[in-house]
């Protein structure tokens, strides 16, 4: 048995007929606010940041941490150079706390749906390309068949979405598992490869060239996703492999709206998902002044997947959308 599994048993075992541990914890003073606090500490890695997230003072947060450690009779955190790190006991407690909070959220969602007569709500996160090619058509299907379902969509990078998924702010995501997260935490079904391209404004000097190579690109301003994101890293790898200098003038943003605005108003170049580029180029407004460069190289990104958290069942409305996205991905697959 793994250490943290053993700790789970010690902290939360409920198979004693004489004294159920969960009841004992509640009688000892464990509260929902404690559960929210340990989850916030795990997310933010600092007691002060966790306090800010919960809109309480740092002294109050410190008192809550002390209360939790007293109730559980275990040290939950230890100080590190830039804040705090959860101990094995803390990680086990945070994992169970997150599950409890999620279940309470699902109770609220289900009861609200029953009271209002609607079909519930779905929280979906997606990277850019599948948001357009997969999520939008599936959402349209769900909305037509079940008008009462409310779908909440967030388009962000995989790094952000995966952490939101673990924090139960998303039901499932269309993204990739970041390298710094344990893949065993997730259910992963690969559904597609994201292709990217370079966009410029209408009338850009590079459009006069029938084919653009990497050597033509470093002299212009660039709009990149934040450092460390997959698309940014892939572009940098292409430059390095070709022995071409990296662009020196760069604006970093994850906003496609800001990216488009900068490209349309300057000679800047931006890498974006091809599906997004085609969509923007077809728009009749100023955003439609975007053009796709014809390059002598391909920009293929690591495959994206449908991702959910292991051990966390999808609500019925989320499962419906999940299945429709999976079905559409298979229809679009070249196989």
Question: Which tags fit this structure?
Answer:
335 residues; alpha/beta; 18% strand; globular; five-stranded mixed β-sheet
Structure description:
Belongs to the LysR transcriptional regulatory family. InterPro entries: HTH-type_LysR_regulators, LysR_HTH_N, LysR_subst-bd, WH-like_DNA-bd_sf, WH_DNA-bd_sf. Residues 30-87 form the HTH lysR-type domain. Keywords: DNA-binding, Transcription, Transcription regulation. By secondary structure, the chain is of the alpha/beta class. The chain is built from 12 helices and 13 strands. A 5-stranded mixed β-sheet has the order 4-3-5-13-6, sandwiched between helices. Strands 7, 10, 11 and 12 form a 4-stranded antiparallel β-sheet that branches. The chain has a two-stranded antiparallel ribbon with strand order 1-2. Helix 9 links the parallel strand 8 and strand 9. It starts with a helix and ends with a helix.
Which helices and strands, and how do they pair?
Elements: H1 3-12, H2 21-27, H3 32-44, H4 47-53, H5 58-72, E1 77-80, E2 83-86, H6 88-116, E3 121-126, H7 128-145, E4 150-155, H8 158-166, E5 172-175, E6 186-192, E7 195-201, E8 222-224, H9 230-241, E9 250-252, H10 256-264, E10 270-273, H11 274-281, E11 290-292, E12 299-300, E13 304-309, H12 316-332
Parallel strand pairs: 3-4, 3-5, 8-9
Antiparallel strand pairs: 1-2, 5-13, 6-13, 7-10, 7-11, 7-12
Helix pairs in contact: 1-6, 3-4, 3-5, 3-6, 4-5, 7-11, 7-12
